[in-house]
Write a structure and sequence with these properties.
eight-stranded mixed β-sheet; three-stranded antiparallel β-sheet; alpha/beta; single chain; disordered C terminus
């Protein structure tokens, strides 16, 4: 899905018109999400824009907007506070409910994360909440204003410079963030929670994620955005966060995928069913790269995504990741069953990329590029910390994992079209 975007506006909590953008998938949305940007940021910031657009590829429509007094929205920033941000989110949800459909997913970045935690109980349709680099308490902002705090308290207001821009902050803002019952809100959230945070976040320390996670009740999950900065300025980090978010939301907030156009019927394959342990792959004839895969009595397809292929099936690397993910899950399930541990469900999310060898601290290769597979494992069940640690170690013992990490030799035999039964002298064994 390439998606599209619409510019909108709606009245906010102070009566001023708020500038908004609705990112839509190509087909009918599976769910609507509401995105809250970081403190003094805007709807068009890197994290907001990249994550919202990436989510449309998973069928999720996302409304992002500028809070009162910020970006292209009307109103005076000096008159706003954390409570007015919560109310702006409530107005945004009402706008979605009236014009499209109520949001079932709330996503908040930095202070926006604290805001979505605070507003969840006011939007009954919400079933999933995601925070990205969020402080455990909005009073965390006070340290950003510490150089101007004395002037604010003495004069009632002061001009402060944040992210290179000047804002007028009043005493009521400090009083408001100090009075928020955030811990109680997190405890009584009433929705599934995904906490995403970078251990390297220099603006909001990762300990905030621990406090949010510990305060919340199940269902809850944590994903480390390893190596990302606070603003997710790297496109790869934003795309990774979106992919994990969409995968996780599928369990709690997404409807069924939009019905896609039926692919062209495959060209009949005359090869016999392969014997056990043999995989046969043949071109389907319905696209430049579309393939038919036969694994015993099972039939699969493979293809390249648009615009290279016709997207009638997963790509070859997707299938590699699927094999690793399935093997990982099965191995941990087998181990947990043997130990009689209360493991209810395993979800494995994987992503393949190519990185420069110099950026890989754990790689023996020092030049060129290396393949990198990021694997996120989510356990469900009443497991203690020791059981989780043991299961995490078992993941690396799955047979497919070992195959990918070991030396593999691939021998190729070429069958000529003129004589498909003759293989006597064309064996071209090549170590991979």
């Amino acid at each position: 899905m390439t998606g599209r975007s619409e510019q909108l506006e709606f009245p906010g909590s102070h009566g001023a018109l708020l500038a908004a953008r609705l990112d839509l998938p190509d087909g009918p949305p599976r769910a609507y999400a509401l995105f809250a940007h970081c403190f003094t940021c805007s709807k068009d910031g890197l994290a907001s824009a990249r994550i919202s657009r990436a989510l449309t590829e998973f069928g999720i429509a996302v409304l992002r907007f500028d809070f009162t007094g910020l970006g292209k929205s009307g109103g005076e920033f000096a008159n706003t506070n954390f409570s007015s941000n919560i109310e702006d989110l409530e107005f945004a949800a009402a706008f979605l409910r009236e014009r499209y459909a109520a949001p079932s997913i709330l996503i908040g970045h930095s202070l926006g994360g604290a805001a979505v935690l605070a507003v969840t109980h006011r939007i009954p349709e919400v079933t999933a909440v995601v925070t990205i680099g969020a402080p455990a308490d909005p009073d965390h902002l006070a340290h950003l204003l510490r150089e101007s705090r004395a002037e604010i308290e003495e004069s009632g207001e002061a001009e402060v410079v944040l992210a290179g821009r000047t804002f007028r902050v009043r005493q009521q803002f400090l009083a408001d963030i100090a009075a928020q019952p955030q811990a109680e809100r997190i405890r009584d959230l009433g929705a599934a929670l995904l906490v995403m945070h970078s251990p390297a976040d220099a603006i909001v320390a990762v300990d905030n994620a621990r406090r949010i996670y510990e305060a919340a009740r199940h269902p809850k999950s944590f994903v480390a955005l390893d190596g990302a900065d606070h603003l997710l300025t790297s496109p790869a980090d934003a795309a990774y966060a979106a992919a994990i978010l969409a995968t996780w939301a599928g369990r709690y907030a997404l409807g069924p995928p939009a019905e896609a156009a039926a692919p062209a019927p495959p060209v009949p394959i005359t090869l016999p069913d392969p014997a056990e342990g043999l995989v046969v792959v043949s071109e389907r004839g319905s696209g430049a790269y579309a393939q038919e895969i036969m694994i015993g009595r099972h039939r699969l397809t493979a293809d390249e995504p648009l615009p290279i292929g016709t997207d009638t099936g997963p790509s070859p690397y997707d299938l590699v990741l699927a094999g690793l993910g399935a093997c990982t899950s099965m191995t941990m399930r087998l181990y947990a069953a043997r130990k009689k541990w209360p493991l209810e469900k395993v979800t494995v999310s994987l992503r393949h990329s190519r990185i420069h060898a110099k950026d890989c601290a754990d790689c023996e290769t020092t030049t060129g590029q290396v393949d990198r597979i990021e694997r996120v494992i989510h356990f469900e069940g009443d497991l203690d910390a020791d059981q989780i640690e043991r299961l995490s170690g078992i993941a690396d013992k799955c047979p497919v994992h070992r195959t990918l990490r070991s030396e593999t030799v691939i021998h190729t035999t070429i069958l000529g079209a003129a004589d498909p039964e003759s293989t006597g002298d064309v064996d071209r064994g090549v170590p991979a």
